[in-house]
Amino acid sequence: MTLDTATAPHVDFQDCVGRNDEVADDGRYTLKYTAYANLPLADHAKAVGKLREALEKDGEVRITAYEEKPRVILYGHHSKEKFDITADSVKPPNTLRLSVGTPCFLPPGAKQQRF
Fold first, then answer.
1. Quick one: which of 39, 48, 107 has its CA closest to 76?
2. pTM attached to this predicted model
3. How far is CA 24 from CA 17, 34, 37, 68, in A?
């Protein structure tokens, strides 16, 4: 498996949205970091299966969904650190997406706004 060097990893910062749809202006954000790998579709299940085994062995990540047909999909959630993991087959063909999404972060030195 090789990372797709033609497509840089995608970094997506979003504002945090509260329980009542409030958005603070104190700089809080979530981050979704996504990389793409070139790998024959026939090898996706084996690669993601190895990832699943490693995550389950670690014991901190709970696999919330896993499918191998027709394409591979893995969703996981780290209960302590509150981040999400995705590994799935996407288009174009032979592309495996690997993604991590964070919970809300407050930048260092920022004063948290209260609602």
1. 48
2. 0.84
3. 8, 25, 35, 40
